Amino acid sequence: MPIILTYLAAFLLYTLIGWHFWRTRWNGSAIANNKNSDAAPGWERYVMLAPLTLHGITLYQSILVGDGLSFGVGSAISSIVWLTAFIYSFSGLFYRLEGLQTLFAPVAAVGAVSVLLPLAFPSIHPLVNAGLPAFKAHMMVAMMAYSFLTIAVLHALLMMAVERRLHHPSASPLLTNLPPLLVMEKLLFRIIWTGFILLTLTLFSGVIFSQEVFGQPLTFSHKTLFGFISWGVFAALLFGRHLYGWRGRIAIRWTIAGFIILLLAYIGSKFVAEIILNR
Length: 279
Prior knowledge:
Helix content: over 70%
Number of helices: 11
Largest sheet: 2 strands, antiparallel
Structural class: mainly alpha
Shape: flat
Distance between the termini: 33 Å
């Protein structure tokens, strides 16, 4: 299949899946009808695998260019979205996520956009030292850290909506089938712990093995600064949870703040350098 057809096929599948979950999970009349219906069809747990496979193929072909590694801002965002959707969908094969399938509609919508980003923002400058095993390991752990913390912030936003509905019962019935707030909160901190450990490995491997990973000594940049600030925010959240029992709105706000800072650390720096400054 020509590469452009792979992009289009992935885009169309994401769009169709997003439309399906919007129609069955977000549409008011459909929600009311589903209250008395049976459990969600089994095929819904596997439906994301098709566009994710095609999306992965497009990333493989756009990132691996010759002997180098082309990893511009478009490919970086697309990779994070792909890995986020993959982890979220893969976990649904082993855990009961019927209520949390509400997120499949926005995840599919973002996937449809992100799969085209490498075409819109191609990388001009291949990465140096891309063939080094240390560099590949560092990049993989970094992408996984971003993906888990992306899932965490999506989960936190969903918790915020659930909490708002508890105080405003007349709000949209969209959130009625979600798990209890305490269950969602417990899951949130499991996700944050996973992302925090991966982020710790990312930052400290970059500091300790900077010469091996990047081919140069550690330089203090905006990316490094924001990365460690984000790490400090998540560390403070987990410390506050353990020591003071932080939960609810406090946990949600710290999660969102940490993610925004992390977004500025890598994607923000990459966007400014490649798109605005054209470097």
